[in-house]
Amino acid sequence: MPPTLFRSPRTLGDEIVVTGFTTADGKAHLPVFFAEVKRPGFAEFLRQQHLPAEVTVVERNGLLAFGPMDAIAGFAASLDTPSGAFQNTPFYTRIDESYKNGVGLLLSADLAGLGPQHALAAGGARYFIAEEKEVNHQMEARAAIGFDGSRTGMAAWLADPSPMGTLDYVSPEATVVTAFVVKSPTAIVDGLVGLQNHNVAASAEKSLGDLREHTGVDIRNDFAKALGSEFSLSLDGSAIPVPSWKLVAEVYDPVKMQAALTKFAEAYSRETVKAGNLPLRISQEVFEGRTYYMIAGGDGSPLTEAHYTFADGYMIAAPTRALIARALQVKIGRASITHSAAFVALLPRDHYNNFSALIYQNLGTTLAPIISLFGGMVPQNRGSAGMMQSLSNMKSTLIAAYGEPDRISIATSGNLMGMSLSNLITGNLQNAIPFTQFMGTRDRAPAFK
After folding, report:
1. Residues sharing a CB contact under 8 Å with residue 44, sequence separation 6 or more, in sequence order
2. Residues sharing a CB contact under 8 Å with residue 76, sequence separation 6 or more, in sequence order
3. Tens digits of residue pLDDT in 363-394
4. Which of 158-167, 346-355, 416-425 has the lowest mean pLDDT?
5. Which single residue of 55, 70, 235, 236 could bond 51 by disulfide (Cβ 3.0 to 4.6 Å)?
6. What is the largest CA-CA distance in the chain?
7. Residue 191: enclosing H or E segment and its boundaries?
8. Residue 432 bridge partners (DSSP)
9. pLDDT of residue 352
10. In 166-199, which positions are buried (b, 16+ CB within 10 angstroms) versus exposed (e)?
11. In this structure, are residues 414 and 141 in contact, taking their beta carbons and an 8 Å threshold?
12. Domains of the chain: which residue ranges?
């Protein structure tokens, strides 16, 4: 039988579930695949596919399940008499929330079942949910890590969704943009030295102490307190010969920030001179009524230059003063990337007007001329030609993150969950179900045709 039988609504139900579970003795069992059977024959079809001996297929009460023998042994009873206990768990409540909003592909995990020793579970994370569905003829993907109560630890550093003024300085021509909002830079410093991992906390406290001793800068009081909560880093212009990076950070106290940066630069110069190198070049000048600062390497290379200024509560830094001037013009003219039709078209369709963090890339416009320039140097074969073509035609993407009271969510347009689940529903069983990896057998592969 052709693999279209797997996806045919006349054979199996519309929903296919892949699940794993942990028994009372702590042994994990996965994966078990099961679905409603609408027409007989699929169980026999599976048995004819030369599955590994460890894979078992059972069909009961209109439901079919297949997977590792020991997993099926523990799961098959639920096909006869569903216990209903799962419906009373917080995990089920969160899954049901996704179903009510409509799902296409759904991946969910109860992190608490992994035990407190797991990194995410130890941080208070309760569950992981990832989903993908079509909205207005466009694929959208979302994922969330939920917590028992309010977010704590590092997860609490991300602020609630709020306007990002740093993006007002980024032009629509930017090819890479990262931006985020934190609750408090000082809280991050305090959190590092107060981590439950005493080794990490002690190391962080020692590093801060050494830095204070060598530079005279107290990171918490002289640096973090001068900062606001918004930050962005972008590639906003040419990538060669000097990458047009742009750093924008909210600054509450420009005087304190400038004093701290000067101390850092002077301390570095002292150390590098001791090592026999040239000192940093440090300067400032007033141009058209605005003070610009520069910290650059002593070798004169433009790759080591950093220029910056303060404006309207923000510090704008870039490799050249011209790039900073351009950023200020973008802000004044309200011509930033947030007004770009291409950028707006990628925004997730949800109830949020703001983000806690975002990552945006439009690398196709940057890579295409580079690939055209250097493409002749790459060996011409089918694989390399396909890769170069894919890179030059790379589609723009935007991933948004939201710091909610009890979870961190991310959303994007496109396929966030990878191709395995897509392969599963299109009948490509070999790529969708890697039985040999699950079984730990490398010498046998299922012959799915």
Report:
1. none
2. 58, 60, 65
3. 876 655 544 555 555 555 555 555 545 545 56
4. 416-425
5. 55
6. 81
7. helix 185-193
8. none
9. 82
10. bbbbbbbbbbbbebbbbbbbbebbebbbebeeee
11. yes
12. 4-151+409-439, 153-404
